[in-house]
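For the sake of clarity, the format in which proteins appear in this thesis is described at this point. The record quoted next illustrates the convention:

___
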Amino acid sequence: MKLNVFPSKVAMGQAAADLTARSLNTAIGERGEAHLILATGASQFEMLQSLVVQDVDWSKVTAFHLDEYIGLPLTHPASFRKYLHERFVAKLPALHVFHDIDGEADDPAAECRRLGALISKITVDVACIGIGENGHVAFNDPPADFDTDEPYIIVDLDEACRRQQTGEGWFASVDDVPARAISMSVREIMRAKRIVCTVPDARKAGAVRDALEGDVTNAVPASILQRHPDCHLFADEPAVALLRTRP
């Protein structure tokens, strides 16, 4: 894993977006199309703001949604579909396709199968993700399932994950946070050719330390990123404050 540290969130987001755009442009140049995975949450604000103004032929880009709460209306402020439609899709009218997760689907398992069938047919060129305060990637909370081959799965959200969503202001209380979600699986994330992981803020410092310097374990789901051949972690100074060694 290559660590890149920046003095500000803006610089961090710009650098992550630059690498993402280069990855997409390389794929378009080689195959005439590119495939992208997008995350949400506070960690992605600056990255997405920079990404949507990059020089990319978006008509040749297909984007996939990383995770979504089950049962949360599209109109809810915490809806990840709402987040991505407002911050990404609406700003790129030329975008070829955006495959979002319908968290309101009557049959969440069928929704997982629908999305899995779509993403299984392609190679993802770049996955833009974050790391949670509890070390999760997507909504794969500890102990994460490192073994399932299913691209999308139904997961239970742990207490730490639900507290993070409340702390970031998405929900008024922990009790308001849905207990389940549809998430891209760990193996599916790792299948991406390149991973761009953006992690700001001091509250993520423990997770960053454990993911980079600890053993690979499903108790720290993000530690699996150590095994990816082309993973780039973009962080600000507070997020790396607990590392024993610095680049």
